Amino acid sequence: MKKIFLLITVLMSLGCSRLDMVARWADVTAVSRADKYFDLTSQQEKELKQDLQKDITQLRKELMPEVAQSLRELEPEIKKGHMNPALLAKNFMLVQDYFKKGAGYFKNTAAKIAIQLKKNQFDHFAVKVRADIEESKQDNDTAEKAQRTAYKRYRRSVEFWIGGISAKQQDELEDFLKAHPYPWALQNKSREHSLKLFLNSSQNPEALKKFVLDYYTDYESSRLPEFTEALNSHKYAFQIFLAEKFWKGLSPEQKENLQENLIARAEDLEKIAQRP
Questions:
Q1: DSSP summary character for residue 223
Q2: 204 three-state secondary structure
Q3: Crossing angle, helix 42-79 and helix 107-114, to 10 degrees?
Q4: Cα–Cα distances in Å, from 136 out to 54, 92, 188, 189, 212?
Q5: Under a CB-based contact definition with an 8 Å cutoff, are residues 259 and 54 in contact?
Q6: CB half-sphere exposure, 123, CA atoms < 13 A
Q7: Running DSSP on this structure, what letter comes out for residue 245?
Q8: Which has more pLDDT, 165 or 248?
Q9: Integer Cα distance of 223 and 232 in angstroms
Q10: 3-state secondary structure at position 92
Q11: What predicted TM-score, i.e. pTM, was given to this entire model?
Q12: Could you tell me if 48 and 249 are in contact, meaning their C-beta atoms sit under 8 angstroms apart?
């Protein structure tokens, strides 16, 4: 269930046709992922899908217009060339707030399904999550692998908004990640910590419900403090890098792409929000 709220990330980061498709099939995708991690019964799948349809409809109509408005408000600042650490920090926090707010739409559904789960389903979840953690460890077991993983993610995110990046920009991004590596090891330890808290809470229905509601209200609450500190430090360094180095090297075409994409994404979200 902890994967479900990440759908909001997908809903806010895809192009128009694909965004509409994901919004239409979000409940099916979420149920499929929940089944993968918990081996749900057919009745649990049915109830979960019905509840998610209501949650997603509410999110679509309430949160998507907010996100769209934020994108529209950012576009004039970009057009004026106002890219600085303060502006980036503000919008990084705004994105964080939207992720948390988006997760909140699913908290009651998550708690409802969680208290229906049996011991074998918690065991199944533990096996799946530990397999994910082990895969992450293997994928990032050297500094070179870890940097390559982070580089692919960052490049994909940057190019989504500004289009392709030059060889010089690629080098700058790689240099940043060498100087400020993503804390993969701490992330894996934190996931193990969160899993342990979740499994411990499963021994008591009230404790389980509280854990799930707290998690969907603030998913950072179950993280290891040292991971949160390292991640925040990494994010702050990235903000400075974008504002003081990367932004200055954008071509006129890339800046125009960014402006156009901000408005295009806003329009996409507004259309989906208005859909019956």
A1: S
A2: coil
A3: 160
A4: 34, 25, 7, 11, 24
A5: no
A6: 3
A7: I
A8: 165
A9: 12
A10: helix
A11: 0.86
A12: no
**Residues 93, 103: Cα–Cα separation, whole Å:** 15
Please check the confidence at residue 50 and state whether its pLDDT lies above 70: yes
> From the CA atom positions of the chain, what is the Rg in Å?
20
| 236 φ/ψ sector (left φ>0, alpha ψ -120 to 50, else beta) | alpha
What token pair was written down for 272? 């989906």
> What DSSP string describes 133-180?
HHHHHHHTSSHHHHHHHHHHHHHHHHHHHH----HHHHHHHHHHHHHS
Report helix angle 205-217 to 107-114, nearest 10. 160
Tell me how far apart the alpha carbons of residues 168 and 2 are, in angstroms, rounded to a whole number.
38
Q: Phi-psi region for residue 176, left (φ > 0), alpha (ψ -120 to 50) or beta? A: alpha
DSSP output for 35-78: HHHH---HHHHHHHHHHHHHHHHHHHHHHHHHHHHHHHHHHHHH
Most confident of 24-28, 43-47, 66-70: 43-47
Structure-token pair, residue 73: 């408000």
Closest CA to 12 of 23, 2, 1, 3: 23
Contact 56, 22 (CB under 8 A): no
- Residue 198 CA to residue 131 CA, distance in Å, equals 16
Give the Cα separation of 215 and 54 in Å (integer). 20
Name, of 2-11, 124-133, 238-247, the range with top average pLDDT.
124-133
Summarize pLDDT for 255-269 with one digit per residue, the tens.
889 888 888 888 988
Max Cα distance, the chain (Å): 58
Virtual torsion, Cα 71, 76, 80, 83, nearest 10 deg:
-20
Q: CB count, 10 Å around CB of 241? A: 21
* The pLDDT of residue 139 is above 90: yes
